[in-house]
Amino acid sequence: MAEVEKKEKKKEYNLKEFTTCESTLMMLQKAAAEGVDNAFFRAAEMKPCPIGMESACCKHCAMGPCRLNPKDPYSRVGVCGATIDTIAARNFARMVASGAAAHTDHGMTMLDVFRDVVNGKIKDYKIKDEVKLREVAKSVGIEVEGKETLEIAKELYHELEKTYTQVEGEIPFAKRVPPKTLETWRKLGIVPRGAMREIMELMHRSHMGVDQDYRNIVLQCSRTALADGWGGSMVATEISDILFGTPKPLVAAVNMGNLKEDHVNIIVHGHEPNLFESMIDSVNDPKLIEKAKEAGAKGIQLLGMCCSGAEALSRHGIPHAGNFMSTEAVLVTGAVDAMAVDVQCIKQGLSTVAKCYGTRLFTTNPRCKIEGVEHIEFHEREPRKCTDKIVEMAIERFKNGRPDRIVIPPRRDFGVHGFSHEYINYMLGGTFRASYKPLNENIINGKIRGVAGVVGCTNPRVRQDWVHVELVKELIKNNVLVVQTGCSQIALAKAGLMKPDAAVLAGDGLAEVCEAVGMPPVLGLGSCVDNSRILIACAEMVRIGGLGESIADLPVAGAAPEYMSEKAICIGQYFVASGVYTVFGVTFPTIEGTKFHKHLFEELEEMGLGKWGFATDPIEMAHKMIAHIDKKREALGIMGPRERKLFDMADRRALDVV
Ligand code: NFS
Ligand code: SF4
Question: Reaction(s) catalyzed by this protein (predicted)?
Answer without folding.
Answer: CO + 2 oxidized [2Fe-2S]-[ferredoxin] + H2O = 2 reduced [2Fe-2S]-[ferredoxin] + CO2 + 2 H(+)
